[in-house]
Amino acid sequence: MGSSPSISAFFLAYNDGGTIASMVVNTVLTIGSVTDDFEVIVVDDGSSDYTPEILDESARRYPGVVRVVHHEKNKGHGGALRTGFSASTKDLIYYTDGDAHAV
After folding, report:
1. Most C-beta atoms within 10 A of its C-beta, which of 33, 43, 54, 92?
2. Does the structural domain 7-97 have CATH classification 3.90.550.10?
3. CA torsion angle for 62, 13, 93, 69 (degrees, to 10)?
4. What are the start-end ranges of the H helices in 1-103?
5. What 8-state DSSP symbol labels residue 71?
6. Domain boundaries in the chain?
7. What is the arrangement of strands in the sheet containing 92-97, beginning at the earlier edge strand?
């Protein structure tokens, strides 16, 4: 069997402080069980709650795996998507919103 593909997973977060930490942890554990070559990126799209602090703590907890991109001002869904795709560096890309609702 060939080598596993590398994976970028990114989330769009806007005032998702109550759900984003568990999404990050679950994603790290799930993708980590599939491949060693992955990254988890969260685009904080100008949140006004405690989302930025939660995300910065997640990045400290998983150095080299979790990255956070902070928008100073909300750029909207399209702007956050562009940021997430631009920040992704791996072969495959997975993305979703950070509110923990199934799409």
Report:
1. 43
2. yes
3. -60
4. 20-32, 51-61, 76-87
5. E
6. 7-97
7. 66-71, 38-45, 7-13, 92-97
